[in-house]
Design a protein that fits this description.
- This protein is an all-alpha fold and 261 residues long.
- 81% of the residues lie in helices and 0% in strands.
- Helix 1 runs parallel beside helix 9, helix 4 packs antiparallel against helix 5 and helix 4 runs parallel beside helix 6.
Length: 261
């Protein structure tokens, strides 16, 4: 049974990660970079990981992990901003390398902080506001996508992303709440989304998409904050469902808000 549960966890995490990568990359071609960036904030990568975590770990461990994940979203925003800036002059692989460096530096600093929800919330808000302000002048108002990405490419990259997230989230359960939280916030989905859009549509589209993704990250922050709070007061699965609902509501509000701009 244990081996079956592990295999099921790996499979579900692989499928969910692949779905978000394929869905967001396709939506950029179908609906434009703003909607695609907002959808990137859905917790389709974190959600499955916490789904299995709440079934096997004490609620205090789940809450602590969610708190560290919230804190670590500051590093995710640093990754997104770094790729956005680097993509102006560099090709996808070089931009990705610079973004990983930015993420690693900020993640190490986040690892040293105390697990306080208010601290994670303040850091995320400040990092997001700063990143949006820095990147706003770089966004071209009429940035267009050059058509929908090819399905073979999207499927391949979605599968690769699924393998990556399954491996990392499985190992994170052995590392403690702080390390698990850091790894759960690792921007695997953004990695494949950014490089796919960059290669297929060019710098202008990836900048517009990642600029929207900075605000879309609020959905992930809402998910982590809600779960860390609710899991201490509600049955774990109810808390997870409520946190997911709050995150989806945030994404919906962002998408609807973008339509009225």
């Amino acid at each position: 049974m244990d081996q079956f549960a592990i295999n099921a966890a790996l499979l579900i995490r692989m499928v969910c990660t692949g779905m978000v990568v394929i869905g967001v990359s396709w939506s950029v071609g179908a609906f434009g970079p703003i909607v695609g960036g907002a959808l990137a904030g859905l917790p389709m990568v974190m959600g499955p990981a916490f789904f299995f975590l709440v079934q096997q770990a004490p609620v205090t461990f789940v809450s602590l992990t969610a708190t560290y994940t919230l804190i670590s979203l500051t590093a995710t925003q640093a990754f997104v901003l770094a790729y956005l800036l680097a993509s102006r002059r560099h090709r996808p692989l070089a931009s990705l390398a610079l973004s990983f460096c930015a993420w690693a530096v900020v993640a190490v600093l986040c690892r040293m902080l105390p697990p306080l929800l208010w601290l994670g919330s303040v850091l995320f808000v400040l990092a997001t506001a700063l990143a949006i302000r820095v990147s706003r002048p770089l966004v071209e108002p009429n940035a267009r996508t050059g058509g929908k990405a090819g399905w073979p490419t999207l499927l391949l990259r979605g599968a690769l992303a699924g393998v990556m997230v399954a491996s990392i989230t499985t190992a994170s359960g052995w590392l403690g709440a702080s390390s698990a939280g850091i790894l759960l916030a690792f921007p695997i989905g953004y990695t494949v989304i950014a490089t796919t859009i960059h290669e297929k549509y060019g710098s202008a589209s990836v900048i517009a998409t990642l600029h929207a993704a900075l605000l879309g990250g609020c959905s992930l922050a809402v998910f982590c904050f809600s779960l860390a709070m609710l899991v201490l007061h509600f049955p774990p699965m109810i808390a997870l469902l409520l946190a997911t609902g709050a995150s989806m509501a945030t994404t919906t509000a962002l998408v609807l808000g973008s339509r009225f701009k």
